[in-house]
Amino acid sequence: MHKKRVLLLSEGFGSGHTQAAYALAVGLRSLDASVQTRVIELGNFLNPVLGPLIVSAYRRTVTKQPKLLGRLYRRQYKKSLNRFTQLALHRLFYTHTSQVISQLKPDLIVCTHPVPNAVVSRLKRLGLQTPLYTLITDYDAHGTWTSSEVNKYLVSTNEVKNKLRERGISANRIQVTGIPVHPNFWQTHDKSELQAQFDLKPMPTVLIMGGGWGIMYSDDLLSYMTRWRDRVQLIYCVGNNEKVRERMLADPDFQHPNIKVLGFTKEINKLMDVSDLLITKPGGMTCTEGLSKGIPMLFYEPIPGQEEVNCEYFVASGFGEMLESRETIDRWFEIIQEPYSSVKFRNDLLHKRNQQYNPMECSRVVLQLMQ
């Protein structure tokens, strides 16, 4: 019996796209052990020297010139990648994509980033018969995700579906599935055991995340939070940004028994379970992980573009609010001092989550479409 093969293509422009690909892969295999999956960050795979340089340049732009990124996002918002751009991408970086597909022989290709989506779309115009699904990993529908060669769009919400419909994409090519998260984020852990594992005290705890790249701009607010360190336990996760971590560890404000400064970790799901409040950049994947845990969220300094739209969606849905001032910090840090209020708030969010989101829905839909 032929085993179904799914090829998931992403890019390393931020960690969320690839995390979504891995989450979908794990979900597919958990539902059907016979499914074979392969996740590839296509640019890095085909160009191991040039690929990381391009990602690094993008990261510097995000860090140093976020407003420029926002202008580009808005300027191209309604435009798909034109055929000349697709040809240029293919010739410059992706000339061996067809060989990779031929070798792996997938029954289905899922793209979680617009660039490999455009490259595969071009190959389909040239004769590739493999179905192409596009998993949009934000709560917006930028034009660069769209292509007439996409067989099915997998989207986070009805709002994103409606945005695609406004661009003339037929409803039967769009499925609302939610953004998949790793099954670890659907499990709950004993809080006292986690406190022992991470050397934490049984006290109100706040998790502060700067994204996979550890980008944190608001030094003033980060330092201000430490004024609560006698009453609130603070866990700072700065991702792969070792310079930020070293700077924080050398700062007297962060040198306290109730403050942890962590680098990259694969245990964010456990840290969310042991925390009462999440303060984060509003990346699509991090927000969805927070949603799956039912943890209240405060969002700070969204990157202009998709993070702004992510933030708007989660605020409007009642899962979080913008971190606009010290007063916001004071109010929320007071809320989590009261155990009853904190537990009730989280239970309400979990109830709302159960009504709106199922982390395995995307995997189920993909399996059904493969039948």
Regions with little confidence, pLDDT below 50 for 5+ residues:
none
User: How would you sum up the major sheet?
Assistant: 6 strands, parallel
**What is the helix content?**
40-55%
Q: Give me the side-by-side strand order of the main sheet.
A: 2-1-3-4-5-6
Rounded to an integer in angstroms, the radius of gyration calculated over CA atoms is 21 Å
Q: How would you name the oligomeric state of the polypeptide chains in this document?
A: single chain
- The chain-level structural class is alpha/beta
- The overall strand count is 12
Could you say what the CATH architecture of the largest domain is? 3-Layer(aba) Sandwich
Q: How many separate structural domains?
A: 2
How much beta, percentage-wise?
5-15%
Describe this structure in words.
It is a single chain. This protein is α/β, with parallel strands linked by helices and 371 residues long. The chain folds into two domains: 189 residues, Rossmann fold; 152 residues, 3-Layer(aba) Sandwich (Rossmann fold), CATH 3.40.50. The mean pLDDT is 86.
